[in-house]
Amino acid sequence: MITAPVTIEPLTARPDATVAVPGSKSHTNRALVCAALAEGRSHLDGALFADDTRAMAGALAALGIGVTADEEAESITVDGCGGRLPAGPATLDVAQSGTASRFLLALLGVGPGPYRLDGHPQLRGRPFGPLADALRQLGVGIDADSLPLNVAGGRLRTGTVALSGSVSSQFLSGLLLAAPYAEGSGTVRVELTDTLVSTPYVELTLSTMADFGVTVARDRYRWFAVAPQRYESRTLAIEPDASAASYFFAAAAVTGGRVRVPGLGRHTVQGDLRFVDLLERMGARVTVADDYTEVEGTGRLHGIDVDMADISDTAQTLAVVATFASGPTRVRGIGFIQHKETDRLGAVVTELQRLGIDARRLDDGFVVEPGVPRPGTVATYDDHRMAMSFALLGLVHPGITVENPGCVAKTFPRFFTVLDHLR
Fold first, then answer.
1. Rounded to the nearest 5°, which phi and psi values hold at 411?
2. How, if at all, do strands 217-219 and 223-226 pair?
3. In the beta sheet, which residues pair with residue 332?
């Protein structure tokens, strides 16, 4: 892992590259949960090996689920428990993974306990209350609303529960993933009390559940209902990560080069591929084929006004692209990202201002004016997406240094090596 600050050297020529990005974190972690609960052996091909997915696999192993990983082959084999989670006591450490922690909290409600769920101090500050409260209403004994917490004294049962969707879609996804194994007749019915954010991630949850043989009834994003069912073991191909690909698509747009990412096309189940639509609106040329996506910069970008509530993981990347535009860019609908790995609204505005760029924080987003950054060191706040997005500035402008670059190990350990491939 790289720990010393890294200074990004500007490219000496426009890139013309085909870039292979790692497997999707979101797809891998959802598939791991389904495979763990399924009866029999499942194989995940093209899986991501990074801190977040290792946290999920390690926690399942600590719980007593058979997980065998082959990093060289990018495959994970899971011997499912058939919905019969091993009894505790067991302690699960999810490191910094918000995805793993929310999914596992719901998963633990299926088992007899006792279980303890904990993670990195950064994760202890992130919200769990809405999910913990919903699980309590469905019979699960949980002693706290933030990590560390203990799960014991009751199992998940069918019933109706109200849930907020405005803080994180992971609360809903966690409930849905565990719901097929709730005790009782009827369904687990989740009624949303407000607007659901990051809806493509819920669609990915439903798609992954369907891949393992489980269906979910729904009324758009108003309510979801899951009847008692069983996941079936599968061999599943994990898609390349659309969020990881966004940095390289952005690189093409700001350098006037061309970047193609194979394996990520129009049939993807990942919402973050919609990021290329924004690049196209700003002036880049975009091709989305069946089996690849390609972005070519035209040398001309203009600012846009956009709601990014559904693709908020790419908002920091768009903020960097916006500095290259001919007019201001306003991003709306992402107030909830202040509760991510760091306050991403504050972090992106602070670091752009540190480099001399005019950027302003809004209640639900930010405004970025175009400009040429001065040399400087970017603080990453131990947030992988801050490191990867701000590194793009250095492809064009000299003197851009990224602090604590090793934080990219959370989702993309080889990011800086792959970025060099553009040379």
1. -135, -15
2. antiparallel
3. 307
Contacts by 127-131 with C-beta closer than 8 Å and gap 24+?
A: 127/167, 127/168, 127/339, 128/101, 128/102, 130/163, 130/164, 130/167, 130/171, 131/102, 131/105, 131/106, 131/163, 131/170, 131/171, 131/174, 131/175
CATH 1.10.3210.10 fits 25-222, yes or no: no
Instruction: Please provide residue 207's backbone torsions phi and psi, each rounded to the nearest 5 degrees.
Output: -65, -40
Residue 127 has what pLDDT? 86
Q: Are 291 and 262 in contact (CB under 8 A)?
A: yes
Side-chain half-sphere exposure of 255, counting CA atoms within 13 A = 27
| 190: three-class secondary structure by DSSP | strand
Phi, psi for 109 (deg, rounded to 5): -65, -15
Q: What is the pLDDT of residue 3?
A: 74
Give me the helix-helix angle, 170-178 and 199-211, nearest 10°.
Answer: 20
d(C-alpha 55, C-alpha 410), whole Å: 10
Q: Which CATH number fits domain 6-22+240-420: 3.40.50.10260, 3.65.10.10, 3.10.105.10, 3.40.50.1820?
A: 3.65.10.10
Q: How much is the pTM?
A: 0.93
Give the pLDDT confidence score for residue 76 in this predicted structure: 98
Query: How many other CB atoms sit within 10 Å of the CB of residue 87?
Result: 13
- CA quadruple 423, 253, 274, 126: dihedral sign: positive
Query: Which residue ranges in the chain fall short of pLDDT 70?
Result: 1-2
Which residues have a catalytic role annotated?
A: 313
Helix, strand, coil fractions of the chain, as percent rounded to 5: 35, 25, 40
How do residues 12-38 score in pLDDT, each as one tens digit? Answer: 999 999 999 999 999 999 999 999 999
Q: According to the model, what pLDDT value does residue 339 have?
A: 82
pLDDT of the residue at 342? 87
Q: Which residue spans of the chain are classified as CATH 3.65.10.10?
A: 6-22+240-420, 25-222
pLDDT of residue 43: 98
